[in-house]
């Protein structure tokens, strides 16, 4: 039997000689994809170097899959996703940080469960938040009820005879009728998925987590809707008859239930089996930095991904501090080599010259705007990281040879309760 075990490496590492030989034998097309989208093969290069993407992907039909793990285990994706949702990151931008192909064959890798489970819950909740903003849909459902002194729909003759007439209850009629209701199978499945998501989050032992609060807020919208649904009914739900966010929400609910609720899934799937997925760690770091800045500039506006005209979009604008901040998920900042930072310096310089940004920051003269680059310092913390109360630039390091440019390293958060 041909080997189907995953080829495993960590982000920003190179495959060993055997792995590179196997990749070469597949004759893969490493052409880049559209700008802003997840690149093919998790960004793997032709010479076997992984990029800033983690996840699992099939390299080719009937080939071995590729699994790329984070540089360190137990990164607190749950906390980072929570902050992104609480900070109202644009759903379209949030979803560019990851890709999940729900209909692909599973890939076996136990280590990826700690990455995928919080991602799927956050993905589900981000979609549910959009769905509920538009409002739950109603649909016609078939109901049967033994009614007294009235008739709805049509009477079921034989069963009505057995249940009512032969027992002397001539004033009753067993009726079958349609009712326009929220309590129909699709909404029942979504409620069951929310309950499963709540159970997963409680299992991570973070009772004050904002994702848990969001789950419970969503569940309030399902008051009066049952969570009872059979596996046969789940299988009968067709995506092509759904609209808006319902198809994606239904698919995610099924995937979450397949991992948590065997009464619904009728599946022997285990948590270490995952579909194809990819996470852009550079965007995840952006969300982490956003949370750090929100806590430091508490009560002040932080503009995220602000349009800067022809220069594109600046990661963060802090009007109260007249400051431009950029997040760079790059390890070479710890080397303090200005030569390889040239492109990043030019990028931020462009933002500082954008008339739109200068208007937002209320810079009316020719003053220079301070620019700060925040990068991962290679350290990891089990506590929610916060800067000190001192001005942020006093905690940063001036960039040698460049006026009004600063760098600041911060740790990546880890989960401590798993």
List the helices and strands and how they pair.
Elements: E1 7-10, H1 17-25, E2 53-58, E3 65-69, H2 77-86, H3 91-95, E4 98-101, E5 107-108, H4 113-134, E6 139-148, E7 154-155, H5 157-163, E8 172-181, H6 185-203, H7 210-220, H8 231-236, H9 246-260, H10 262-265, E9 273-274, E10 276-280, H11 281-296, E11 303-307, E12 313-318, E13 323-327, H12 342-352, H13 355-360, E14 371-381, E15 397-398, E16 405-413
Parallel strand pairs: 1-3, 13-14, 14-16
Antiparallel strand pairs: 2-3, 2-10, 4-10, 5-9, 6-8, 7-8, 11-12, 12-13, 15-16
Helix pairs in contact: 2-4, 2-11, 4-6, 4-7, 4-9, 6-7, 6-9
Give an overview of the whole structure:
The chain contains 13 helices and 16 strands. The protein has a 6-stranded mixed sheet with strand order 11-12-13-14-16-15, sandwiched between helices. About 0% of the residues have low confidence.
Task: Give a brief description.
By secondary structure, the chain is α+β, with helices and mostly antiparallel strands. It has helices at residues 17-25, 77-86, 91-95, 113-134, 157-163, 185-203, 210-220, 231-236, 246-260, 262-265, 281-296, 342-352, 355-360, and strands at 7-10, 53-58, 65-69, 98-101, 107-108, 139-148, 154-155, 172-181, 273-274, 276-280, 303-307, 313-318, 323-327, 371-381, 397-398, 405-413. Among the domains are: 139-181, no CATH class; 281-413.
Sheet of most strands: 6 strands, mixed
The unreliable regions are 265-269
Overall 3D geometry?
A: globular
* SSE-based structural type: alpha+beta
């Amino acid at each position: 039997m041909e080997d189907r075990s995953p080829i495993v490496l960590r982000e920003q590492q190179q495959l060993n000689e055997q792995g590179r030989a196997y990749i070469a034998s597949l004759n893969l097309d490493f052409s880049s994809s559209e700008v802003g989208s997840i690149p093919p093969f998790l960004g793997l290069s032709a010479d076997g170097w992984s990029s800033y993407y983690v996840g699992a992907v099939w390299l080719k039909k009937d080939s071995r899959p590729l699994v790329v793990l984070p540089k360190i285990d137990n990164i607190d994706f749950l906390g980072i996703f929570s902050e992104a949702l609480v900070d109202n990151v644009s759903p379209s931008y949030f979803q560019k940080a990851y890709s999940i192909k729900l209909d692909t064959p599973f890939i076996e890798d136990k280590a990826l469960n700690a990455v995928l489970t919080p991602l799927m819950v956050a993905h589900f909740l981000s979609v549910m938040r959009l769905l509920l903003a538009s409002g739950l849909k109603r649909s016609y459902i078939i109901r049967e009820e033994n009614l007294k002194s009235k008739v709805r729909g049509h009477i079921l003759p034989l069963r009505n005879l057995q249940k009512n007439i032969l027992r002397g209850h001539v004033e009753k009629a067993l009726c079958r009728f349609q009712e326009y209701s929220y309590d129909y199978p699709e909404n029942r499945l979504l409620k069951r998925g929310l309950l499963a998501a709540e159970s997963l989050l409680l299992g991570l032992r973070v009772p004050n987590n904002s994702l848990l609060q969001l789950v419970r807020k969503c569940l309030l919208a399902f008051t009066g809707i049952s969570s009872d649904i059979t596996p046969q009914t789940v299988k009968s739900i067709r995506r092509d008859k759904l609209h808006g966010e319902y198809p994606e929400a239904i698919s995610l609910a099924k995937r979450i239930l397949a991992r948590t609720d065997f009464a619904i899934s009728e599946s022997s799937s285990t948590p270490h089996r995952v579909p194809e997925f990819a996470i852009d760690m550079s965007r995840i770091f952006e969300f982490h930095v956003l949370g750090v800045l929100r806590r430091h500039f508490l009560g002040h506006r932080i503009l995220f991904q602000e349009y800067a005209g022809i220069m594109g979009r600046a990661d963060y604008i802090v009007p109260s501090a007249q400051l431009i901040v950029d997040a760079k998920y790059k390890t070479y900042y710890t080397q303090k080599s200005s030569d390889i930072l040239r492109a990043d310096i030019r990028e931020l310089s462009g933002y500082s010259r954008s008339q739109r940004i200068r208007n937002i920051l209320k810079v009316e003269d020719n003053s220079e705007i301070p620019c700060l680059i925040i990068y991962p310092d290679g350290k990891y913390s089990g506590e929610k990281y916060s800067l000190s109360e001192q001005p942020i630039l006093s905690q940063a390091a001036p960039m040698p040879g460049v006026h009004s440019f600063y760098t600041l390293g911060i740790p990546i958060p880890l989960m401590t309760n798993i």
